């Protein structure tokens, strides 16, 4: 029996090399496409994450600014409440008291109050007798320590629809008062007045 053993390999032809090169090119191209698509997906995920982080930071910043504005508004309101608590005299009660003593045709024209418990105001009356009566009422009030009649005069108003000369000119008395308020009495009376309301 005769066996032919050839240990030398047969040389590959040009076509076989071209075929192997084509397969390697296709494999490397598909790997490159796969890696590029993975890279694109990761990049897009990173962009989305960065965008959501940026939006979150903007939302947090807006929340912080809103909280600062709210805190500032709260501080302003607290300052106003604190100021109101330390006002020496509750003016609502004082104005109510002053208006309760007015004659029927008396009118408050202006009112000015300072924190040193002094108030000045102007009143309009039909005549000087009403002004004198109101001055006496102010002096008799337990809420007022001192009263001063600063000035008194007449103010004329014209009624253009008046049928005759006598009703055309109607003088009114205007009196300016300055009062010093009994702060303790007014505060005590205000508490009772608010409880009754």
Structure explained in plain terms:
This is PilN domain-containing protein. The protein is built from 4 helices and 4 strands; from the N terminus they run ααββαββα. It folds into 2 domains: 14-86; 91-196, Gyrase A, domain 2 (2-Layer Sandwich). The protein has a 4-stranded antiparallel sheet, with helices on one face. A hairpin with a 4-residue loop joins strand 1 (107-113) and strand 2 (118-125). The longest helix has 72 residues, at 14-85. The protein has 197 residues and is an alpha+beta fold. Helix content is 55%, strand content 22%. The model has no long low-confidence stretch (mean pLDDT 81).
Quick gist of this model?
By secondary structure, the protein is α+β, with helices and mostly antiparallel strands. It has 4 helices and 4 strands. The radius of gyration is 48 Å and the shape is rod-shaped.
Q: Supply Rg.
A: 48 Å
How far from one another are the termini? 135 Å
CATH fourth-tier homologous superfamily of the largest domain = General secretion pathway protein M, EpsM
Number of helices: 4
Q: Name the CATH architecture of the largest domain.
A: 2-Layer Sandwich
Q: Which class do the helix and strand fractions yield?
A: alpha+beta
Work out the strand percent: 15-25%
Tell me the name of the CATH class of the largest domain: Alpha Beta
């Amino acid at each position: 029996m005769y066996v032919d053993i050839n240990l030398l390999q047969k040389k590959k032809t040009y076509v076989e090399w071209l075929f192997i090169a084509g397969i390697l090119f296709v494999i490397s191209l598909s790997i490159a496409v796969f890696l590029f698509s993975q890279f694109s997906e990761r990049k897009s995920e990173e962009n989305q994450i960065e965008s959501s982080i940026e939006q979150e930071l903007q939302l947090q910043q807006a929340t912080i600014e809103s909280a600062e504005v709210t805190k500032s508004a709260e501080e302003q309101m607290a300052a106003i409440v604190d100021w109101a608590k330390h006002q020496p005299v509750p003016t609502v009660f004082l104005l109510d008291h002053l208006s309760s003593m007015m004659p029927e045709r008396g009118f408050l024209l202006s009112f000015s109050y300072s924190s040193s418990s002094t108030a000045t105001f102007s009143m309009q009356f039909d005549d000087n007798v009403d002004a004198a009566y109101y001055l006496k009422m102010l002096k008799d009030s337990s809420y007022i320590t001192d009263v001063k009649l600063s000035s008194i005069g007449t103010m004329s108003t014209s009624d253009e629809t008046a049928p005759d000369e006598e009703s055309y000119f109607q003088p009114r008395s205007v009196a300016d008062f300055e009062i010093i308020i009994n702060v303790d009495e007014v505060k005590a009376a205000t508490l009772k007045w608010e409880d009754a309301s």
